[in-house]
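Researcher: Here's a chain I'd like modeled. Treat it as a single chain, no partners, no ligands.
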Amino acid sequence: MAGGGGGPQKTDDFQPHPIKDQLPGVDFCVTSSPPWPEAILLGFQHFLVMLGTTVFIPTLLVPLMGGGNVEKAKVIETILFVAGINTLLQTWFGTRLPVVIGASYAFIIPVVSIALSRRFDVYIDPHRRFKETMKAVQGAIVIASLLQVIFGFLGFVRIFGRYLSPLSAVPLVTLTGLGFFAFGFPQLAKCVEIGLPALILVVFISQYTMRLKPPIFGRFAVLFTVAIVWTYAEILTAAGAYKKRSYATQISCRTDRSGLISAAPWIRIPYPFQWGRPDFNAGDIFAMMAAAFVAIIESTGTFIAASRYGSATPIPPSVISRGVGWLGVSTFLDGIFGSVSGSTASVENAGLLGMTRVGSRRVIQISAAFMLFFSVLGKFGAFLASIPMPIFAALYCVLFAYVGFSIFMGLSVTEYFHEYHLISDRGPVHTRSIWFNNIVEVIFSSPATVGIIVALFLDLTVSRGHSTTRRDSGRHWWEKFQNYNTDTRSEEFYSLPYNLNRHFPSV
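Model: Modeled as a single isolated chain. C-alpha cells:
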C-alpha cells in the first residue's frame, strides 16, 4: 500500500514532499477497512453486482446445452460457490488486491460452439444431452486452465508486464471496461421501463449525493437503486402490465419468469465432478485456450484498475504474474466443479471500487462469504438472482465505465440503435413523424454526439462551480484567443514533479 514507512526516523525530514497515505478519491485503501456494519453492506453490494454476470451466462448457455430451470439453478449455485472460493484465494495468495473473481464472458463463444456440436444430437433426452455437453465443457476448461497456470507461475506474464509502459497500459485498462458496451444499454433497452429508471437513479445517487457528509447514499447507490427499481418492477408485474406483451419482453421485465426460485433446492453444496467425468476433445481445448488467454489480458487490466482504486502502489509485474497463476487455479476449479465458464477478474466490481471510493480487501472477502452463503442456501440465492437483467445492465452502464461514463454511453447507446436497425430495418423510435424519427436516429447513432451530450450534462450539473474559467457568452467570436488571468500551466505543468510524487508515491 502507498504510505510512508514506520521507524524511528521521519521520512518528512529528508523528503521535499511527504508521501500521502492514500491516493486522491480513495476513502479506504487495500489494507484499511470501514466499520464492520458498513463493510458488510459494501460486501453485499459487491455480491449483488457480480450476480448479474453469474445469472446472465448460465441463462444464455444452459438452454443451448439442453438444460432447463433445474440445471440452470444448479449451475448458478456452482458459479457462486466457486467464485467465493476463487475470490478468497486471489485476495489471500494472488495479487492480494480487492478484486472479485467471477465468470468470464470470453468463454461464451467456445461453450456455444461445443453446445451446438452435432456429436451431441444423438442424445434425445435433454438432461442427458446437458450432462454430456457439460462434461465436454469441463474437460476443455480444465486443460485450458493449465495455460494460465503456466503463464502465471512460470513468469511469462512477468516478462510481458516489464514491457507494459503507461502508453500501452492505458488502452488495456480502458478497453477492459469499455469493451463490454454491448452488455450495457442494449441489454437495458430490452425492458426500458425499468432499465432506464435504474440508470437514471444510479447516476443520480452516485454522482449528486457524494457531497453529503457522510456519503451514505452515494456509497450504497447500488443497494438503493436495486431496492427501489426492483420494487417498482414487482408492482408492474403484479398489476399485469406485461400480460399482453411479447414473450421476450415478459422474460426481461417480469420478476416471476426466471423459474429459478421454484427450481432451486433449499440447501445444496456443489461438489467436484457433479455432472460426471470430464471428456476431452482437442478442438474444444484449443478454442477454450483462446478464451483463457483473453481472460489473462482482461484480468491484467482489472488488476491495474483495482490497484489504483485500492490506493496501492503501481502493481509490479511479479504480482500480476502471481495473480494470473492463481487465476489459472480458479479456472481449474471451474472445470472441476462444472460452472460452464472460466474465471476472470470482475470488471464491474472494479468499477464499484471507484464509485464507492472503498478499495478495502476485507470488503471483497466479505462479498466472497456472501457468495458461499447464497450458493449453499439455494432458495435465497435464487430469489436475489431473479432480479430482472435490465436492472443489472443499468448498473453495468456505470460500473463498466470506470474510465469514462460518457465514452461508454457513446458506444453503448449507438450499439443499441445499430442492432435495432439491423433487426427491424428501422430505428427504435417510430412515431408518425418520419422526420422526427430520422432526427433521433441520426443523433443517437453517433458515438461522439451521444458522448458529448452526456459529458456536457454531467459537467453542467455535477461539476458546476468547479471551473475557474470566466463566464463567456461566446458572442465575441471575432476576438483573438487569450488567457483571462495567467498561464494555465502554472499550477499543474510547472509543479509536475511534485504532482507525480504526490499521486504516485514509491513503496
